[in-house]
Amino acid sequence: MSISITRENFDQWMLPVYAPAPFIPVRGEGSRLWDQQGKEYIDFAGGIAVNALGHAHPMLCKALSEQAAKFWHTGNGYTNEPVLKLAKRLLDATFADRAFFCNSGAEANEAALKLARKYAHDTAGPQKSGIVAFKNAFHGRTLFTVSAGGQPAYSQDFAPLPPEIRHAVYNDLASARELINDDTCAVIVEPIQGEGGVLPATTAFLQGLRELCDRHHALLIFDEVQTGVGRTGELYAYMHYGVTPDVLTTAKALGGGFPIGAMLTTETFGHVMNVGTHGTTYGGNPLAGAVAGAVLDIVNTRETLDGVKQRHQWLTEQLTALNNRYHLFSEIRGLGLLIGCQLATEHTGSAKQIAQLAATEGAMVLIAGANVVRFAPALNISEEEIRTGLARFARACEKFIAGSSS
Ligand SMILES: *Cc1c(COP(=O)(O)O)cnc(C)c1O
Fold first, then answer.
1. Where is pyridoxal 5'-phosphate bound in this sequence (predicted)?
2. What is the CA(146)–ligand 1 centre distance, in A?
3. Residues spanned by the domain of 327
């Protein structure tokens, strides 16, 4: 059966939980993508901070196809070499002693929250079940993680929600202090709130959370699903801040586009989980293990990580120059290749429109809420791709200004 596919098919056949762009990408290379009509785009979206090495990276294609020709899956009744090699790489590179693999960020956070509850129940008793999270946080879409997330719009339709989760104000230590007590089993926080608008934590805030967790014997969980795997110019953002969590979750860029997530923790906390307490069919499968191993080999080098800092400079300098012309943004912020452009008040609510205009001009950008245009490109995007893409983005900004003043 041969059928010709159009964007309208999405609206006819798919559960309408997304509103995808009007074009359908069919091929990619590096930070360029082409749609069904052959139109070219520069990809500043990176599959939402996922495609760490761009599209069709030769080393990732090789890792995937070599493993694909060996075996794909056995289930967790058998372990495999690629996932064990990946675990060793992650443990050697971080504070952690133990790794659990799954398939997404939400699952990694789900595992982290379950581990925190079990550790507290085993060591202190059932009353120690409180979870403190933050307003505007995003931790995934399972019922537990969407409840931990701080955007009621994403969770309220699915009530009743898991209890004992409370939300403090991000970057406000006093508000966290009010909620964290001896009945708290975990504090979960993003070192940079990604979906919430690309808002970096202050060092004092993360240090303060570390102290509060130590005082009240609560686990500090860093959700590094968006900030991890080189995104900030360090392998994990906690290294940038110099504040070490008890549990770290990572996904998105870990597989460079192949689905994989992981929860990392120490021996002390890891040992409360035993055979049968948690699991997932596909978690730690050899395909994902092989691809993520290749991603880490390339990303966890000084060359790639310093390259992220260099690219941050190229992007922010050019965005600042562009903004001096168009005065769209009140702030350009973020670390490494996670950059948010906050719209000035007179352009409130226009992020989506600007992103759509950018796509029309041949540049893919993300939004983070209604008022932030977000850039999360591949860590190896070239200087030429940045220049070409931002020239297209500038044309979109010009059209937006022309349209909004007429
Ligand atoms: C994307 C994201 C998640 C959810 O990851 P999925 O793979 O979509 O489940 C969780 N936390 C943060 C910080 C994220 O950016």
1. 105-106, 138, 223-226, 281
2. 10
3. 8-57+302-405
Tokens of 369: 């809420």
Return the residue whose CA atom lies nearest to atom 6 of ligand 1: 105
Separation between Cα atoms, residue 80 and residue 122, nearest integer Å: 31
Binding-site sequence positions for N(2)-acetyl-L-ornithine: 141, 280
Q: Residue 384: exposed, middle, or buried by beta-carbon count in 10 A (0-12, 13-18, 19+)?
A: exposed
Assigned domain for 138 exists: yes
Q: What is the value of pTM for the model shown?
A: 0.98
Binding residues: 105-106, 138, 141, 223-226, 280-281
Q: Is residue 254 part of a domain?
A: yes
**C-beta 106 within 6 A of ligand 1:** yes
Q: What is the pLDDT of residue 2?
A: 77
Same domain, 102 and 178: yes
Ligand 1 near 170 CB (within 6 A): no
Mutate to test the pocket of ligand 1, among 192, 225, 335 (most ligand atoms within 8 A of CB): 225
Q: Evaluate the CA torsion angle 21, 47, 203, 266 in order and state its sign.
A: positive
Residue 255 CA, ligand 1 centroid: distance in Å: 13
- CATH number for 134: 3.40.640.10
In a domain, 186, yes or no: yes
- 342-370 burial: b if 16+ Cβ within 10 Å, else e: bbbeebeebbebbbebbbebbbbbbbbbe
Those residues with Cβ within 8 angstroms of residue 272's Cβ, 6 or more apart along the chain or in another chain: 115, 118, 119, 122, 123
Q: In this predicted model, what pLDDT tens digit does every residue of 276-328 receive, in sequence order?
A: 999 999 999 999 999 999 999 999 999 999 999 999 999 999 999 999 999 99
**227 CA closest ligand 1 atom index:** 13
CATH of the domain at 351: 3.90.1150.10
- The span from the CA of 270 to the CA of 255, in Å, is 23
Give distance in angstroms: CA of 402 to centre of ligand 1: 36
